[in-house]
From TrEMBL:
Protein name in UniProt: 3-phosphoshikimate 1-carboxyvinyltransferase
Species of origin: Parabacteroides absconsus
InterPro entries referenced in this protein's UniProt entry, alphabetically: Enolpyruvate_Tfrase_dom, Enolpyruvate_Tfrase_sf, EPSP_synthase, EPSP_synthase_CS, RNA3'P_cycl/enolpyr_Trfase_a/b
Substrates-to-products reaction catalysed: 3-phosphoshikimate + phosphoenolpyruvate = 5-O-(1-carboxyvinyl)-3-phosphoshikimate + phosphate
Source superkingdom: Bacteria
TM spans (from-to): none
PROSITE patterns in UniProt: EPSP_SYNTHASE_2
Pfam short name (any one): EPSP_synthase
Length: 411
């Protein structure tokens, strides 16, 4: 089934209860389990990536399928490595092609026993759980921060604790900070100096915990604000002093004419009229915002140069390729270089007559392209719109409530 999405007939008006952050949910679930917490987590997301982790942590099975959830795959691997028993963990075909060797090598070096069931370096995995001795290891920080977050959360329960030396440029650094800050809320202290993170053996202490709304999800509403002529948008559940790195999106959207005011409920967006001529930004710290900004700039006709995109190649799909392919259908010619830079200098090609945007099993492709309906009188047609459930299951409902017309088309 495809969706044809058309702009609201009147001005876009929305008060949105955003989904809660899956990054925070999935950390809180692991920390809750490690601290034997009696408190259920409040405002837990009903998105797929969180649901698979809830299911795994509550089941009596030995074999887990975490589908497409990168955090669940990485966090559960480290978690199970220290739970006595024999476990297997698998996921979607794409997950079987997302690398995990750095994490497996690191865990095996501190006393775990993890084997590959199919392809060396990739899920599915067989895990022989036991107490972990811990110690001092070096690993690359340049592939996925999720490996580091996974190791850190189990680190205080290792016999000798853990000293991690991070090699190379670190990608997605705010997610490591998020992990450390949440660990601290659960009573565990770590020290991060230079390229070294130290966690001494310690116990977690359970706390009642409420999850904040998702700043990555907020970015699509910022995009709608940027692309609409007139709009009235309020996003509930966001904090001014957020632990999420993607809160940086608010500042960056200021360059695209969207202002943010914080209220006791969340944020109110307004148009400022101050729009940059070209947007230049390094997304190494906020990779999940890259698609939003690529599509917004194209829709606003603003050239851009975005660097720091190396991790996009190993996410739900190769996001650099997917963006180039799908924007070409709409008449934009993007150039990539060094496996990490995507630019658009305003070059156009002939657009397809009836383009259908492919979503590549990637929620962020669907969510980033839908707002283009605001600037395309013919609307935007999209394949597999259901992919949004990975992080934002109510996205289409919320768009419909905001006045978008969404028509199902059988194919
Ligand atoms: O730790 C997390 O919650 C995440 C870290 C990032 O991944 P990488 O560290 O692989 O870039 C991000 O893209 C992902 O959506 C969530
Ligand atoms: C990359 C993402 O998720 P994950 O790596 O957790 O599958 C994402 O949500 O954009």
């Amino acid at each position: 089934m495809n969706y044809k999405i058309k702009s609201p007939e009147a001005a876009l008006k929305a008060v949105v209860q955003l989904p809660s952050s899956k990054s925070i949910c999935n950390r809180a679930l692991i920390l809750n389990a490690l601290s034997y917490s009696p408190y259920p987590i409040q405002n837990l997301s009903d998105c797929d990536d969180t649901a698979v982790l809830v299911k795994a942590l509550n089941s009596n099975d030995r074999d887990f399928d975490i589908q497409a959830a990168g955090t669940a795959m990485r966090f559960l691997t480290a978690f199970l490595a220290k739970v006595v028993g024999e476990w297997t963990i698998t996921g979607t075909e794409r997950m079987k092609n997302r690398p995990i060797k750095i994490l497996v090598d690191a865990l095996n070096a501190v006393g775990a026993r993890i084997e590959y069931i199919e392809k060396e370096g990739f899920p599915p995995l067989r895990i022989f759980g036991s107490a972990l001795q811990g110690g001092e290891i070096s690993l690359s920080g340049g592939v996925s921060s999720q490996y580091i977050s996974a190791l850190l959360m189990v680190a205080p329960l290792m016999e000798k604790g853990l000293i991690l030396h991070l090699e190379g440029n670190i990608v997605s650094r705010p997610y490591i900070l998020l992990t450390l800050q949440l660990m601290e809320q659960f009573g565990v202290k770590a020290e991060w100096k230079g390229a070294t993170i130290r966690v001494a053996p310690q116990e977690y202490h359970p706390i009642p915990f409420t999850v904040e709304s998702d700043w990555s999800a907020a970015s699509y509403w910022y995009e709608m604000m940027a692309l609409s002529r007139q709009a009235d948008i309020q996003l509930n559940g966001l904090f001014k002093h957020s632990l999420q790195g993607d809160a940086a999106g608010a500042k960056l959207f200021a360059q695209l004419g969207v202002g943010t005011s914080f209220t006791s409920d969340g944020v109110v967006l307004k148009k400022t009229g101050n729009v940059t001529r070209k947007l230049v930004y390094d997304f190494v710290n906020e990779p999940d915002l890259a698609q939003t900004f690529v599509v917004t700039c194209a829709g606003m006709n603003i050239p851009f140069r975005f660097s720091g995109l190396q991790s996009l190649k190993i996410k739900e799909t190769d996001r650099m390729e997917a963006l180039k392919q799908e924007l070409r259908k709409l008449g934009y010619v993007l150039k990539d270089s060094c496996n990490s830079i995507l630019e658009w200098d305003g070059e156009r090609c002939e657009a397809e007559e009836n383009p259908v945007i492919a979503t590549y099993e990637d929620h962020r492709m669907a969510m980033a392209f839908a707002p283009l309906a605001l600037v395309r009188p013919a609307g935007i047609e999209m394949a597999h719109p259901e992919v949004v459930s990975k992080s934002y299951p109510h996205y289409w409902e919320h768009l419909a409530q905001a006045g978008f017309q969404i028509e199902e088309k059988s194919v």
